[in-house]
Design brief:
Blueprint (H helix, E strand, L loop, with lengths): L4 E6 L6 H7 L2 E3 L5 H9 L5 E6 L5 E14 L9 E16 H6 L7 H4 L5 E4 L1 H11 L1
Parallel strand pairs: 1-3
Antiparallel strand pairs: 1-6, 2-5, 3-4, 4-5
The protein binds a DNA duplex (12 and 12 nucleotides) through loops.
DNA sequence: GCCAACGTTGGC
DNA sequence: GCCAACGTTGGC
């Protein structure tokens, strides 16, 4: 399968991009939403993942990579929830803010804008590349 | 199966 | 701090 593109959200107070840089890799645990879980299960090794910091930062701040496909989330009380492993590839030179994303006609349809509460979402290759370009 | 109540997320 | 959006829960 060709490479797929994703975006994950995190409140930086809970887990920031800087934490991922410090950890070198992390288990992306804590997802408790069925739609987000479908996306986690669809991730493949090598897929690219934009890291969006919500609430305080409100910007895409880095690019990560899927290093392990879905496995049981040890932090879950009930079976069925899954995590993946992510590692950082590179920060964006300039964070791409939510304001910038909203201002881009080519990005008008992305789930980040349409489904504000979804924490794991797919991105079309063009949308992913556009955001990375804005951050370069 | 419907829907009101409630809890959480996340932008402003 | 407020509130809109929206997912979940539980009574009927």
């Amino acid at each position: 399968m060709t490479m797929q593109y994703w975006l994950v959200k995190s409140e930086p107070e809970a887990y920031a991009w800087s934490d991922l840089l410090g950890d070198r890799k992390t288990d992306w645990t804590g997802v408790r939403n069925y739609q987000a879980r479908i996306h986690l299960n669809a991730m493949r090794k090598g897929d690219r993942v934009l890291f969006y910091e919500s609430v305080t930062t409100k910007a895409v701040v880095g690019v990560a990579e899927v290093t392990k496909t879905a496995f049981p989330d040890k932090t879950a009380d009930e079976p069925g929830w899954v995590a993946v492993e992510l590692k950082p590839i590179a920060p964006l030179s300039r964070p791409v803010t939510l304001t910038q994303i909203k201002a881009e006609p080519a990005l008008a349809g992305i789930p980040l804008l349409r489904q504000s509460r979804l924490s794991v979402m797919p991105l079309e290759p063009a949308a992913f590349k556009r955001i990375v370009a804005l951050g370069g």
